[in-house]
Design a protein that fits this description.
mainly alpha; Helix Hairpins
Length: 172
């Protein structure tokens, strides 16, 4: 193990989008136990500092690997197609139209059932995009296309927060 290893190498996992959640959690627990600073109490301050660096590195990798969206963005970056969400919002025009339709539907939603219908539609789209992402990254090795899909999923994640807020407001 080296601190500069990519997250997948660090966890001993294949560098792919599809990862069994239970496997990621098991590897994290094993690594976290191995590098926990308390195991190095008798070895002095330098060993404890190094263990702390390792613990931080393992936890950082775990955060990325356990979250499908973060994992996909990380894979895109590793494969030379960083997401650059702050300065690159390009998406297919069909998805932009869908975004506008969802926003209009949310603005017009006056009861919980209409928000639930919209939420169901968004969830279906999200599932389709996750399947598309797996194909783009694991089968086609098309990181630029996957980066675009990740940006779409980032929008959906933010939009889901808006849906939840609207649902909460309507339920009060």
């Amino acid at each position: 193990m080296k601190l500069e290893d990519d997250d997948f190498s660090l966890f001993g996992l294949p560098q792919q989008f599809a990862q069994p959640a239970a496997e990621v959690e098991q590897r994290w627990k094993q690594l976290a136990a191995r590098v926990h600073p308390d195991r190095f109490v008798t070895e002095g301050a330098a060993a404890q500092r190094m263990a702390m660096q390792w613990a931080l590195r393992v936890n950082e990798a775990h955060q990325r690997l356990r979250d499908p969206l973060k994992r996909a963005a990380y894979l895109c970056e590793l494969r030379g197609a960083p997401i650059r969400a702050h300065d690159n919002t390009s998406m297919p025009s069909s998805f932009l139209i869908t975004q506008m339709q969802w926003r209009e539907a949310l603005e017009e939603a006056t009861d919980t059932s209409s928000v639930q219908v919209l939420d169901h539609e968004v969830r279906q789209s999200e599932q389709q995009l996750h399947q598309q992402l797996q194909q783009q990254l694991d089968e086609l090795n098309d990181a630029p296309a996957a980066a675009q899909t990740v940006r779409a999923l980032m929008f959906i994640s933010r939009f889901r927060t808006e849906l939840d807020r609207r649902m909460d407001a309507l339920e009060q």
